[in-house]
Design goal:
- By secondary structure, the chain is largely without helices or strands.
- It is built from 1 helix and no strands.
- The longest helix is centred in the first third of the chain and has 9 residues.
- It is elongated and about 50 Å long.
């Protein structure tokens, strides 16, 4: 979709919430209300979405590599198969978000809230998830090799079959966690 930034914002203001395959890479959409917007298969590489409202947005297979989502509201968002490599999700709220099969290698998840998020089979190697909250999250089969998860919370989370090789879990709260089949070779214990 070849919209200009101005035309895109005008369409949003008119109530249009359907923009599949939108080309928004590099745009500054800080603080934008994108709640419930369909941006499936969109190109949002290095897009600035600081403090944007993406609650219940549909970002299936969207490319958000390098995007700045600091402080963004992504509660209930659908990011199945999305690419968030090296994205900054510092202090973002992903409560109840669906990220099945998403790619987040090198993403910044500092103090990010992923309570109840579905992170099944996510590629999350080398993420910086210090003080992140994964309470009640489903990380079944996720790959967190070399991740820094110091002081993160995993209360009641499912880490079944999760790859935590070399992860830093120092100070992490792992109360009521299911670690059946998890690989913690070389991980720093909590």
């Amino acid at each position: 979709m070849g919209l200009t930034r101005r035309a895109f914002l005008r369409e949003l203001a008119r109530g249009n919430r359907s923009f599949p395959r939108a080309q928004l890479s590099g745009w500054d959409l800080s603080g934008a209300n994108l709640s419930g917007t369909d941006l499936s298969q969109g190109e949002l590489r290095e897009t600035v979405l600081r403090d944007a409202d993406l609650s219940h947005a549909v970002l299936v297979a969207a490319d958000l590599a390098g995007a700045d989502l600091t402080g963004a509201n992504l509660t209930g968002a659908v990011l199945t198969g999305a690419v968030l490599a090296a994205a900054d999700l510092t202090d973002a709220d992903l409560t109840g978000a669906r990220l099945v099969g998403a790619q987040l290698p090198g993403a910044r998840l500092y103090v990010t809230d992923l309570t109840g998020a579905e992170l099944v089979r996510c590629e999350m190697s080398e993420v910086y998830g210090v003080e992140a909250t994964f309470d009640q999250a489903d990380l079944t089969g996720a790959v967190l090799r070399g991740a820094d998860l110091a002081d993160a919370r995993f209360v009641g989370a499912s880490l079944v079959g999760t790859d935590l090789q070399g992860a830093n879990l120092r100070g992490a709260l792992l109360t009521g966690v299911n670690l059946l089949g998890a690989d913690m070779t070389g991980a720093t214990p909590g």
